[in-house]
From TrEMBL:
<keyword id="KW-0963">Cytoplasm</keyword>
<comment type="similarity">
    <text>Belongs to the methyltransferase superfamily. L-isoaspartyl/D-aspartyl protein methyltransferase family.</text>
</comment>
<dbReference type="GO" id="GO:0005737">
    <property type="term" value="C:cytoplasm"/>
</dbReference>
<comment type="function">
    <text>Catalyzes the methyl esterification of L-isoaspartyl residues in peptides and proteins that result from spontaneous decomposition of normal L-aspartyl and L-asparaginyl residues. It plays a role in the repair and/or degradation of damaged proteins.</text>
</comment>
<dbReference type="Pfam" id="PF01135">
    <property type="entry name" value="PCMT"/>
</dbReference>
<protein>
    <recommendedName>
        <fullName>Protein-L-isoaspartate O-methyltransferase</fullName>
        <ecNumber>2.1.1.77</ecNumber>
    </recommendedName>
</protein>
<dbReference type="GO" id="GO:0030091">
    <property type="term" value="P:protein repair"/>
</dbReference>
<feature type="active site">
    <location>
        <position position="75"/>
    </location>
</feature>
<keyword id="KW-0808">Transferase</keyword>
<dbReference type="GO" id="GO:0004719">
    <property type="term" value="F:protein-L-isoaspartate (D-aspartate) O-methyltransferase activity"/>
</dbReference>
<dbReference type="GO" id="GO:0032259">
    <property type="term" value="P:methylation"/>
</dbReference>
<dbReference type="InterPro" id="IPR029063">
    <property type="entry name" value="SAM-dependent_MTases_sf"/>
</dbReference>
<keyword id="KW-0949">S-adenosyl-L-methionine</keyword>
<dbReference type="InterPro" id="IPR000682">
    <property type="entry name" value="PCMT"/>
</dbReference>
<keyword id="KW-0489">Methyltransferase</keyword>
Amino acid sequence: MHSPEQLPELLRGVGMTSQRTRDRMTARLAAQGIEDDRVLQVMAGEPRHLFLDEALAHRAYEDTSLPIGHGQTLSQPWMVARMTELVLSESPRRVLEIGTGSGYQTLILSRLIPELWSVERINGLHHRASARLRLLQAHNVRLRLADGGHGWPESAPFDVILLTACAHELPEVLVSQLADGGVMILPLADIDGEQWLTRVRRDGNQSHVQRLERVRFVPLLQGVIR
Ligand code: SAH
């Protein structure tokens, strides 16, 4: 870890990780159609560069996805903003995220939602995300190393479940952990393997599936890697 004297500068960033760079990122997001000011404000204030290896930190605010190790990626800012906007439009109190990854999407959500749970299947990523979220005092987040396909049954039901990895069929176990009227937001592949951001609303024993836009995510996989 870093020494206490280094911390403020590290958090704020300098040069390519400075406040100006963050402001340019959110101006771009607004121009690209992100309308929710709460999302833009939180993303302007939070240090995305701390969720990458030092060698990549200078690219943190580019409009691109970036590698975080173990073959996984941190989604581009636009995707994080869009998914956060979709989650917030439900005014949820309790949200479950599947695919903590770097923890950046988790951090953004944690600033905007009262209670958050997040599951990751790769130990190395889970560990690093825990350290970052602790450093940034995201105290309303509970993290777990597990196969997110099982959800988080003890804490269900959730108002929103967000997947940040692409499913190939509707994960019924997760649908069953939604509150009535609750929503799951996920990348879902069609039979041609094309991925669609998808919104599923639980209505009693039925679910209403709505296809949104084309996206690209890493796949939802089974099991835990220690
Ligand atoms: N939201 C993340 C994106 C990470 S990429 C970020 O902001 O960095 C998607 C993540 O989902 C990867 O870390 C991958 O390991 C994880 N994942 C894939 N299948 C999973 C599963 N069944 N359970 C939990 N996590 C899973």
